Amino acid sequence: MEKLASAKTCFKLLQVMPAVQLAASLPGGLGVLAPPLQNMIQMQQVRHRQTKHWKPEFKRLRKLKFVKMDLPNLREKQEDISKEEMRSRMKERGVLPPRPWMERPFHISCTGGIFEAYVPPEGDGKKSIISTSGAKQKLEFLEKKSKSLMAVRKIRSYEESFSTDEFGSEAQDIYIQAHTHMAAKEKYKIREFVSERCYPEMMHNVKDKTIRWKFLQSLEPPRVVHARVTEVITKENQFAQVTVRFHSQQMLAIYDRFGRLMHGSEILTKDVLEYVVFEKHISNEYGKWRLHDKIIPDWLPAKQPAPITYRLIEDVEEEPPKELEAGEEAKQLESSSEQPKEQLQLATPVESRAKPSLSI
């Protein structure tokens, strides 16, 4: 059996000679050394820095972490650069040349008014169909119905579930929600039920006022009386407007900031006949029906203004100066000249006056 060399002799030999010569000098080679000493002798000198990553598998990815950038020359003036050089630099960076005008995107969410507005027949809601005037109104309505049918067909090409019979109840819900939010002054929630054109008209002069509004009942079911479709700018941008007739009972009372009643009453109910226009951007996939405007016919009498109270301040009227005659003016001057003489006599002291002399 081969003898193992002692550890002391191995350490001394490692300090003096390299591992290769040591292995050759030892009898039996490296096999005679202990396993830990064998690992120490097999260590070789590595000719690279010790900061290198232990796993060079992701060397390429680590390299991509560092990006070389061309820093701009801040001392360079724009005036000194020629047009050709500027063009080549912009082309290299993929930057488009600046335009002399400014372009800003804009979105058309609603139209600016009513196109081909419906004209309500005079005396609607008061005249019966049996009378001659009522029958005449019914005949005029049938004549205008052809254009509305074409518009309804166009709406159905974008919205398959649209129906004139069911739209009345849907429009009534939108109408109630819009007026409820207006009375509560919820300016953010009302925008879901009102178009951008109708919003300022509904919320105008609402500040510093208390509004009490209620929709009590429908005297007649709401019905579609008019429908139109139009295009804005392009043929693909389509807007639809539907006019709905509402005949209902409502309650309205408006109070000013001091709690004084300005208009209406919370006790009395009134029959209201309205023609309300609803609009939808049918080209938009997420478009909704919203309250757009109300039709006020020309034959409708003007409403009386609200009784506003004011503070009454009585102005004191000053009497104009009277004109004096010639004789009265002379008397007034004489009296004014006598007054200073009397004042002077009263002003002189008693001692300065001459004393009466006594005769003996």
Model description:
The chain is built from 10 helices and 5 strands. The radius of gyration is 52 Å and the shape is extended. The longest helix is centred in the C-terminal third of the chain and has 22 residues. Helices cover 32% and strands 17% of the residues. Strands 1, 2, 3, 4 and 5 form a 5-stranded antiparallel β-sheet that branches. The protein is of the alpha+beta class and 360 residues long. Strand 1 and strand 2 form a beta hairpin.
Poorly predicted parts = 1-5, 346-360
* Helix segment tally: 10
Order of helices and strands: HHHHHHHHHEEEEEH
Distance between the termini: 191 Å
Radius of gyration: 52 Å
Share of helix, binned: 25-40%
**Mean pLDDT, rounded to whole units?**
77
Strand segment tally = 5
Helical/strand content category: alpha+beta
Major β-sheet profile = 5 strands, antiparallel
> Shape, please?
extended
Strand content: 15-25%
